[in-house]
Automatic annotation (TrEMBL):
EC annotation from Swiss-Prot or TrEMBL: 1.1.1.30
Family per record: Belongs to the short-chain dehydrogenases/reductases (SDR) family.
SUPFAM superfamilies: NAD(P)-binding Rossmann-fold domains (SSF51735)
Superkingdom as given in the UniProt entry: Bacteria
One example GO MF annotation: 3-hydroxybutyrate dehydrogenase activity
Protein known as: 3-hydroxybutyrate dehydrogenase
Gene3D superfamilies in alphabetical order: NAD(P)-binding Rossmann-like Domain (3.40.50.720)
Entry keyword set: Oxidoreductase
Length: 252
C-alpha cells in the first residue's frame, strides 16, 4: 500500500537516493531540505520519472517552526530523519555555535519532527519513524564529540519512543551505517586529513575503513533496503533497534 513519506536532507546523498528508491515503489515522497530550491529541482527530476514527489524547504534546526510545518502537510505515514551536518574539532577548541547546530540538526530536530507527526500516526494506528543514524551512534572517533553525542542520543530517543508507542502500530528505529560516500563524508575526509596531518587517502585507509573487516564503504542501496525492511507491516514488532550496517566494525 502506498505511503506518504517525509525525508529530511533529501536534496542529496542518502536522502535523495532513498527518495527515488521509495518513489519508484509508488510511494508519495516529500523531499525536504535546508536548500528548498535544490529540493524542488530534485523533486521535479523524480516527477519526470513518474514519481509523486514534492520538494519543500525545511530547516530542522529551527525547532519552533517544525510543528507548524507538519500541520500544513497531509498525514505523514513514514518519517525518515536523515538531515545531517558535521564539524570536526577537539572538544577544547569546539565552537559553541557549531556544537548547538549539530545537536539541533541531528537530535533536537528529529525529536521535534517526531513529536509533530505522532498524533496523526496514533489516530490512524500506523507509523514508521526511521532515523538515519551512524556507526557513531554506537562507537566513537576523536574530534567528533558533538556528532557522536547527538547520534548516541538518537538511539536513546528511539528506545523511549518505542515504549511510548507500544500500544499502536508505530515503530521507531535507527539505521547505523559506517561510512557512506556522500558529500558529507567527502568533506569529513578533507577535514580529518587536516586534523591528523595525513593525506585524504590515508584517512580512508587508516581511519575510515580500518575498523571494518570488509574494508568497504556502505552502499546507498544497503540503506534503502533496510528502510524497505523497517517500513513493512511484517516489521511491526521491530522497534527500539539500532541496526548496524558496518561491515563487522562493532563485532570487535
Amino acid at each position: 500500500m502506498s505511503k506518504r513519506i517525509l525525508i529530511t536532507g533529501a536534496a542529496s546523498g542518502i536522502g535523495r537516493y532513498v527518495a527515488e528508491h521509495l518513489g519508484k515503489q509508488g510511494h508519495e515522497i516529500l523531499l525536504t531540505d535546508l536548500d528548498g530550491e535544490r529540493a524542488q529541482v530534485e523533486a521535479e527530476q523524480l516527477q519526470q520519472q513518474g514519481i509523486r514527489a514534492q520538494g519543500l524547504a525545511l530547516n530542522v534546526a529551527d525547532l519552533a517552526s517544525l510543528g507548524d510545518f507538519i500541520a500544513r502537510q497531509p498525514t505523514i505515514d513514514v518519517l525518515i530523519n536523515n538531515a545531517g551536518v558535521q564539524y570536526v574539532e577537539r572538544l577544547d577548541e569546539y565552537p559553541l555555535d557549531k556544537w548547538q547546530l549539530l545537536q539541533d540538526v541531528l537530535l533536537n530536530g528529529p525529536a521535534m519532527l517526531t513529536k509533530a507527526v505522532l498524533p496523526a500516526m496514533r489516530e490512524q494506528n500506523f507509523g514508521r519513524i526511521i532515523n538515519i543514524g551512524s556507526i557513531h551512534a554506537q562507537v566513537a572517533s576523536k574530534y567528533k564529540s558533538a556528532y557522536v553525542s547527538a547520534k548516541h542520543g538518537l538511539i536513546g530517543l528511539g528506545k523511549v519512543l518505542a515504549l511510548e508507542t507500544g500500544d499502536v502500530d508505530i515503530t521507531v528505529n535507527t539505521i547505523c551505517p559506517a561510512y557512506v560516500k556522500t558529500p558529507l563524508v567527502e568533506a569529513q575526509i578533507a577535514s580529518q586529513a587536516k586534523q591528523h596531518g595525513i593525506t585524504e587517502q590515508e584517512v580512508i585507509d587508516t581511519i575510515m575503513l580500518a575498523p571494518m573487516p570488509k574494508k568497504a564503504f556502505i552502499g546507498l542501496d544497503e540503506i534503502a533496503h533496510t528502510v524497505d525492511f523497517l517500513m513493512a507491516g511484517a516489521a511491526r514488532n521491530i522497534t527500539a533497534q539500532a541496526i548496524a550496517l558496518d561491515g563487522g566494525w562493532t563485532a570487535q
